[in-house]
Amino acid sequence: MLMSTLPLASVPTMVFSKKTPLQSNSLKHWCIQSCYNHHPSRRLALFQLGTAIPQSQLLGANAAKLFGAERNSIEDSKSENIATAFKEEEALNWVKNDNRRMLHVVYRVGDLEKTIKFYTECLGMKVLRKRDIPEERYSNAFLGYGPEDSHFAVELTYNYGVDKYDIGNGFGHFGIAVDNASKAVDLVKAKGGKVTREPGPVKGGNTTIAFIEDPDGYTFELLERQPTPEPFCQVMLRVGDLDRSINFYKKAFGMELLRAKDNPEYKYTTAMMGYGPEDKNAVLELTYNYGVTEYDKGNGYAQIAIGTNDVYKTAEAIKLCGGTVIREPGPLPGINTKITVCLDPDGWKSVFVDNIDFLKELE
């Protein structure tokens, strides 16, 4: 449906011179001096009225044009700044009231059927839909824990003939809520899966967690929690400036900062961002590692898709908030689903999808 599901090959005031006041002062001084020389009786009047005499009379027609143009330019600039401020305020208010939800996360795998088998047997996901696009040489599979119109999902992409991807070190993990982490790990082991961290308390907390890897090396964090309507609960990405990222996702994406935690003992800080409480919605977990400002994103992880009522207004708000729009809003060829694609300050890609078009696509 989205751009990154395509084959890998498609992954894609006026300035014023500071000399002007000096020149005008020089002209004014010359004019006053000339008046002194030729009309001594006007000295007092000039001193008394100097600040009230229009510069057009004092300096002549050419200077008047200069000051008039300068004054008009300054006024135009002020008006433009005021208009921009109102535009930003309107855009931010619209973002807050937009109907947004994290729809799915997109990434590439080397063996679609093998990955589907792992997710269904080890993680308990269900195949929601599949499609093959032979003319574009790729296939998709959508998996999750409930219907796509109400649940977060994974969109797996297989590009013909590509069996391995570089995950990089910027992508962190996906979070899956489980009733019992130990039982979940035992199942993964029984199915031949890889466990990279045995169940135990999270560093600096009490939640029991475990880490596993899927066949392509993507990491999944298993979080022991009470039953939840959204077991697919997290996407963790690493960022170089946490405050900058929080500000961007709040303003441009309309997300809430659900919680943040600094872990100085382990030299990292996390922030949970999302559109609702963690126990009922998938969230974006942003992680800042002390002193690390850049990461290798690899070519495996692609993007998160988010629903919106208006991709055109969304794109404008992203631009106003400092984001980069890499695909202008509009319909996709063939299916007419309207989308826009952007990058956050760290270069992580997101796709906003028209809500009505998305529901039509599911039909």
Automatic annotation (TrEMBL):
<keyword id="KW-0456">Lyase</keyword>
<comment type="similarity">
    <text>Belongs to the glyoxalase I family.</text>
</comment>
<feature type="domain" description="VOC">
    <location>
        <begin position="231"/>
        <end position="355"/>
    </location>
</feature>
<keyword id="KW-0862">Zinc</keyword>
<comment type="function">
    <text>Catalyzes the conversion of hemimercaptal, formed from methylglyoxal and glutathione, to S-lactoylglutathione.</text>
</comment>
<dbReference type="InterPro" id="IPR004361">
    <property type="entry name" value="Glyoxalase_1"/>
</dbReference>
<dbReference type="InterPro" id="IPR029068">
    <property type="entry name" value="Glyas_Bleomycin-R_OHBP_Dase"/>
</dbReference>
<keyword id="KW-0479">Metal-binding</keyword>
<comment type="pathway">
    <text>Secondary metabolite metabolism; methylglyoxal degradation; (R)-lactate from methylglyoxal: step 1/2.</text>
</comment>
<dbReference type="InterPro" id="IPR037523">
    <property type="entry name" value="VOC_core"/>
</dbReference>
<protein>
    <recommendedName>
        <fullName>Lactoylglutathione lyase</fullName>
        <ecNumber>4.4.1.5</ecNumber>
    </recommendedName>
</protein>
<dbReference type="InterPro" id="IPR018146">
    <property type="entry name" value="Glyoxalase_1_CS"/>
</dbReference>
<dbReference type="Pfam" id="PF00903">
    <property type="entry name" value="Glyoxalase"/>
</dbReference>
<dbReference type="InterPro" id="IPR004360">
    <property type="entry name" value="Glyas_Fos-R_dOase_dom"/>
</dbReference>
<feature type="domain" description="VOC">
    <location>
        <begin position="101"/>
        <end position="225"/>
    </location>
</feature>
